[in-house]
Amino acid sequence: MATQPAEMTVHSAQPYNAEPARTVLAGRDLTPLDAFYHRNHATEQPRIDPATWSLRVDGMVERPATFSLGALRERFAEHTEVVTLQCAGNRRSGLIEVADLPGETPWGPGATGTARWAGARLADVLRDVGVDPAATDVVLTGADVADEPDEPYAVSVPLEKALASEVLLAWSMNDAALPAEHGAPVRVVVPGWIGARSVKWLERVTVADAPSSGFYQAVAYRLLPADASPARGRGVPLGPIAVNADVLSPADGAEVPAGRVHVTGYALAGGDRTVVRVDVSTDDGATWAEADLAPQASRWSWRHWHADLDLPPGTTRVVARAWDSAAGVQPADPAELWNPKGYVNNAWARVTLHAIAAADG
Ligand SMILES: Nc1nc2c(c(=O)[nH]1)N[C@H]1C(S)=C(S)[C@@H](COP(=O)(O)O)O[C@H]1N2
Ligand SMILES: [Mo]
User: Fold this and answer.
1) Which of 85, 187, 265, 332 could form an SS bridge with 200, CB 3.0 to 4.6 Å?
2) pLDDT at position 6, please?
């Protein structure tokens, strides 16, 4: 079926940061490649020739090794996981309404998407080279270098997560070769964790006894108290995603016929939790109704929901919140979670709908 390429909201061309409209994400377990958000830090996307690319695995390992793409694919079994990626900055625009966040990309609801990823398990590669028992972290380094700071994109994950069977070195996305802009030839996919840990254009895996000292681990992607300013080592590094949800259809501000309105959205539990309930409200949370949940496509994916609401003519704000399997629920107010880098806005989802009474006669 030929479809038009999805229209993206481009926040910046270089680095390329873009997100789809929320309605494009609605009702699909897998996000089409042309509607998958892009989040980059470097001005230029690195140009990598897969024929000469190699992955270096070093640090606290018994047998440091270098794998060509062919060697990686031949030596390690391919595994598939359906995983939702979500940028820590998703929904930042809701925090900017509370207080400005100069210099931070004003992401709407679309800095998230779900794909079927296939590749080698990072655990299999690490076991192959032999991990030193004193190691605690795994540093993942990409090929791209931003203007400021002038260092490659590198972050780390704790060894325990790196060894979990769901963490992939992916070369395929939605049954196609991984697109260059999503990190080809090989990217990391760290299910349940903020998108920043899923390093694209992977070049090096370094086993270590400390987290990465790089900018994106030690300064950025950390949760700070509201009155703190970012500094090396301040705040806590963001790892597992917090429970979140959004309304995906109708669009925010849409005009709909008054009466029964079909509202749909997604919920994402984050970490290794699952979505257990989604509530919707048309009176700002005074009363709630339970939404119907679609199956969760995988432990690592979002779960779509829908509800039929009876809307009177006029303007109604539809509110939604999700609960996860650890009894976590979204907070009501973005002001409660405002933080100086504008991360993890998981306040209740809110869209405004204008219901139009049917014309008589
Ligand atoms: N090498 C590299 N990996 C990266 C990034 C980057 O800028 N460079 N951005 C990270 C962030 S913040 C996110 S949210 C995801 C976005 O992945 P996507 O562009 O494929 O959607 O990639 C992560 N991996
Ligand atoms: Mo991100």
Assistant:
1) 187
2) 75
